[in-house]
What we know:
Layout: E1 9-13, H1 20-29, E2 34-38, H2 44-51, H3 58-63, E3 67-72, H4 76-88, E4 92-95, H5 100-103, H6 106-113
Helix pairs in contact: 4-6
Amino acid sequence: MDGAVVGPGAALLGVTHPHTSGRTRALIEKSIPILGAWDDDPAIEPFTRKFEIPERPLEAILDDRDVSIVLIHSKSHLMVPLASSALHAGKAVLAEAARRSASNRLPISMSAII
Length: 114
């Protein structure tokens, strides 16, 4: 993805889950701009290079008004905090299913937001 993007787009929070590549390809095929990706894992660099997605700080993605949805494909222990932060920032969230211990905290986080 090159050049300036006008209008809403998506961003990736975490790229370590196996479904990330497939969902990224689907966004590209549907011409949905991917405005950035963040992960604290070293896998972020080769992933963003392969898909030509800008690597961005987490706060920059959350503060970006052009990012309307985030796809969360992080390590399980980060899914709930990332989803909560994204929802607080007004983003729509698509999160990969977290392992049971992490997903049990999601309803508590959701009720704190609502």
